[in-house]
TrEMBL record:
It comes from Amycolatopsis marina. It holds the Pfam family HIT. The active site is at 102 (tele-amp-histidine intermediate). PANTHER family: HISTIDINE TRIAD HIT PROTEIN. InterPro entries: Histidine_triad_HIT, HIT-like, HIT-like_sf. This is Histidine triad (HIT) family protein.
Length: 119
């Protein structure tokens, strides 16, 4: 397993510091170190699955818990009323760089459209 693949496991184990926003028995939410919005929090299940498809196939209940945690994070961040986005990147072409499934919770400002990269 590469360092990038092991990054979230090390954060979960508290071997690498992170600004934790919320924690449950099965999930951990912490601030992204390279935020793409005013509020950008990652929600990870403590049990490792490579991507959201693998998680959905293996444990639908845990996927639901990740999404419940994302909603709690949005409330804690004060973005639940104005709107927020939950994004799962699956695969390198979609921008996934850490292959431990994680939801990006983004908000706190007007978000642009997404899709094809221009530039």
């Amino acid at each position: 397993m590469s360092d990038a693949e092991n990054l979230f496991e090390r954060i979960i184990a508290r071997e690498i510091p992170a600004e934790i926003v919320h924690e449950t028995d099965t999930t951990l939410a912490f601030r992204d170190i390279s935020p793409q919005a005013s509020s950008h929090v990652l929600v990870v299940p403590k049990k490792r699955y490579r991507n959201v498809a693998e998680l959905a196939a293996a444990d639908a209940g845990l996927l639901a818990e990740v999404l419940r945690t994302a909603a709690i994070v949005a409330e804690l961040e004060g973005i639940d009323e104005s709107g927020y986005r939950v994004v799962f990147n699956t695969g390198a072409d979609a921008g996934q760089t850490v292959f431990h499934v994680h939801a990006h919770v983004l908000g706190g400002e007007q978000l642009g459209f997404f899709g094809r990269h221009e530039g």
